[in-house]
Amino acid sequence: MPSTITAEKASLRRQALDWLASLSPQARAAGDQALFRRFLALPQVASARTILLYHGMDTEPDTVRLLPPLWELGKRVCLPRCLPGNQMEARLVQRDSPLIRHPYGMLEPGTDCPIILPDQIDLVLVPGLAFDRSGGRLGRGGGYYDRWLSGCSGVTAALCRDGLLMESIPRLPHDLGVDLVITETGLYGPSLSLTGKSGA
């Protein structure tokens, strides 16, 4: 039942947040470096023309560090902008684009940055608290990405610390998973072997 799944997800969120709170700054930084190296080495990054990142905050990977290397690779890079009603849009950012602090704490592109439609984006880096090996995603409960991704045909990927790769994440009908789950030591997803890991 949906109420049972909602309760299970709330419990998993608490577990994930407790685990993240136990990480030292040094462990977090080392994990970020490994995750970013593996992300930038993906063939899906090499082939993508336009990529949607998110601006990591608090215990999330510091994904703003991915902007310079992606620009150096000649990629068009977007960041999300939150809209009323738990909606979002993607806007193109460049080196000189000013970013605005949202009340939630993340930095967003301003309205002067061009809107990029979901069907124009080749690769989306999707945030989440935890993931499972089949691409299941545990978000923070706002539903922004589930709504936005319904109109996107690009590849979806996620950065997941090894300690937050769960056995199984329960899903409601509207919950969308991701194609690729990248950890510090492995690569998982619905089209990959559930027992194997990709190379470093």
Plain-language structure description:
26% of the residues lie in helices and 23% in strands. It is of the alpha/beta class and 200 residues long. The protein has a single domain (2-188), classed as 3-Layer(aba) Sandwich (Rossmann fold), CATH 3.40.50.10420. The strands form three sheets. Strands 6-3-2-1-7-10-12-13 form an eight-stranded mixed β-sheet. The protein is globular, with a radius of gyration of 16 Å.
Please state the second-level CATH architecture: 3-Layer(aba) Sandwich
What is the number of independent domains? 1
Order of helices and strands: HHHEHEEEEEEEEHEEEE
CATH class: Alpha Beta
Number of helices: 5
- The computed structural class is alpha/beta
CATH topology: Rossmann fold
Helix fraction bin: 25-40%
Spans of 5+ residues with little confidence (pLDDT < 50)? Answer: 193-200
- The averaged pLDDT comes out at 90
Q: How far from one another are the termini?
A: 40 Å
For the secondary structure, the number of strands is 13
Major sheet strand order: 6-3-2-1-7-10-12-13
Percent of residues in β-strands: 15-25%
The best one-word shape is globular
- Main β sheet profile: 8 strands, mixed
**Integer-rounded radius of gyration:** 16 Å
> CATH H-level name... which superfamily?
NagB/RpiA/CoA transferase-like
